[in-house]
Each structure stands twice: as structure tokens, then as C-alpha cells.
Amino acid sequence: MRVEQILRKKGTKVVTVRMNESLQTAAQLMRRENIGAVVVKDVCGTEGEVVVGMLSERDILRAVADRGASALALPASVFMSRPVISCGPGDTLDAVQALMDEHHIRHVPVLDEHTLIGVLSIRDVLGAELGGARETVPLSSWRSVRVSTLGASS
């Protein structure tokens, strides 16, 4: 299966922020849209049409963990992941999954001739590979799971 086939099914809505918008603005947008990452676009010289990075939940968590709440006032460009790891509409799902595995990312912008046309998430890729197949697991099977707790000295 190819990227373009998934985009036809899921649609091509892409949520973006400009690189000078605050981390807080980006986080609020991600929460409102219920998404795990936004595409960061340039603000000068290209009228905001060039993809310059990705900002994920992980990036926001790292920023706040490292710098505290004051990080939320800083621009998204400070914390975004770059260079941009992208795919094209003709790429296969295997190729996209390999990109995700290699770079430890869960969201990949789809570029067609440098134009942003979509974003694929790991959920999109796995959903397409599974073809909507889901296994029903009885609740009773969860009761037999053993959980070990490790202390700080373990």
C-alpha cells in the first residue's frame, strides 16, 4: 500500500504552527485537535509555506522537563525536531515504517514536490497494515497478568 492511498481514506487535513508561535500555543492546538504532533512552518521569505520541523508531545515534555514552565513562552522553533524526516505520496508503508523506526518518530509529514499534503502517524500506518482487523480479548485474561514493581534501588 502507498501513502497516497492512506491519505485518500483519512483526508489531508494538516495542523500547523509557525515557527515563532509559542510552545504553549502549539500545545493548546494539539490538545484542541487531539493530535500528537504539529508541522512547524517558516514565517519569513516563504510566506509560511516551507516545512521547517515537527513538534511532538515528546518535544513539549522534554522542553518543560528541562526548562520548567517558562519553556512554554519560548518559540516552537527552539524545541522542534529537525531536520524534517518526510515521505512522498508514492512511498510504500514499509518505507514509512522504516523511517519511523530508524528515527524513533511517530509522525511523518507527506511532501509532494516540497508541498505539504498530509501527515502520517504510526496509528495510520498500523491501521492500514492491519486492515482494520481487531482481536477481542476477554477481560478475564487481563486478571492473570502479573505486575512487578521495581524500587529505586533495584
Automatic annotation (TrEMBL):
Domain of life the protein comes from: Bacteria
Pfam families according to UniProt: CBS
Keyword Acetylation: no
Keyword hit for Ribonucleoprotein: no
Signal peptide start-end: none
InterPro entries, alphabetized: CBS_dom, CBS_dom_sf, CBSX3_CBS_dom, Diverse_CBS-Domain
Residue span, CBS domain: 7-70, 80-136
Keywords tagged on the record: CBS domain
CDD domains listed in its UniProt record: CBS_pair_bac_euk
PROSITE patterns: CBS
Protein name: CBS domain-containing protein
